[in-house]
Amino acid sequence: MKDQRISRALIIMVFGTFFGLLCSTLMNIALPTFMEAFKISAGRVQWVMNGYMLVNALMIPVSSYLIKRFSFRRLFIIFAGVFLVGTVFGALATNFSFLVCARMVQAIGAGMMMPLVNVLAIRYAVPGKKGRIMGVIGLAFNCAPILGPAVSGFLLNYLSWRYLFILIIPFAVLTLALSFFFLPYIPHNESPRFNVVGLILITVGLWSLLMGLSNVSNYQLASFNVAGYVAIGLVALGLYVINQRHSDHQLINFRIFRHKQFVLATVINMLITATMYGNAILIPLLVQIVLGKGTVTSAITVLPGAILTGLLSTTSGRFYDIYPIKWLVGAGLVIDIIGTTFQAVIGADSTILMITIFQTVRQFGLVTMLIPLQTQALSLLPNDIVPDAVATFNTLRQIAASFGTALIVAVVGIVNNLLHCQSSHLGIQTGFAFCLLLLLASLVLSRQLYHKIIHQK
Predict the structure, then answer these.
(1) Residue 298: how many CB atoms within 10 A of its CB?
(2) pTM (two decimals)
(3) pLDDT over threshold 90, residue 199
(4) Beta-carbon neighbour count of residue 349 at 10 Å?
């Protein structure tokens, strides 16, 4: 980095963001536990995850305005505190509604911390070193969500579900303390206006779409619970686009979509992210429900891949500074496709060892390309629109995570309903096959990526 103060700030912010992202998948393996503890249905328990990811996604576009309006120090301290409050509330929850609200408060804090890290890195990284810096950030952005199920699997085997929150509290307190004493003041010189109507429209649109997609496996496609919510969502998002195009204070600067490489890298990242988070659901379903194994076994199947992701994240970032982006993403996708093909073809007939190997192969492919894709999307842009680009990239990433998960679970549910069996291995394998289709589409799109270093203005 250009300045030691910025380097120190980035380390602290990456540390805090890691635990915010860990929480995005920490509850995956705990869903059956919540169903038993609160006596709720599978449809309702999904909101532990969906509520978190949706609020997280909605917070990210707000970050574009806040980063322009307030200092990095003030924003990170405030939202690290919000994340801590949500974590404490989660540990104290006495009913399911309170638990979901606590998760949403957590998501408000985590949703703001993520773009702060990206903007700081892209703005202040030394030219030619952006890939390496983004690789460091990848430890939080890509390793934490994969590590979440492994951590929760071990915890739930020995402790109460409350420890999924209690575990995070000391790290959240440490992040807040370090931020207060060591984060430097980085000045800003903008006073933008906030588009309240735009936020309302995108909130209604995304919430309605997610509700509709989440109901696919439980209701008729023509019912209001599916088609009605989807229609409302599409209309609201259409009005949001119209509002943004005619507003002089956009929630997100639409100029970023004029940059083809940003759009291309973002779309590919969305498709890959959907498979990554969908896989985080499919593996526990396969291991715990179809094969009848415990949470520790489920954790063991994803642990090697999570460790590999952590070890190689910084390396893949450095590769961006050396090798063409098309090579990196193409190689990563081919590896990911090989692992996913084995999951889809063999699936429930696998041993635990085979499932672990397939998942580790997938993670090796993912870690090879996710950081380079993120760097490609952001590093070729002018500095004045980087905050908007970061907000958009992370918003779409979280939307892909929540909607991709909903779609993949819906595919599994539809197949299970057709077979009149809620734990069919064919449903799980169909979910893996759907992931494979998304990866093949990504491979086709990746051929249009190109590597180009420019001087930002």
Answers:
(1) 28
(2) 0.77
(3) no
(4) 9
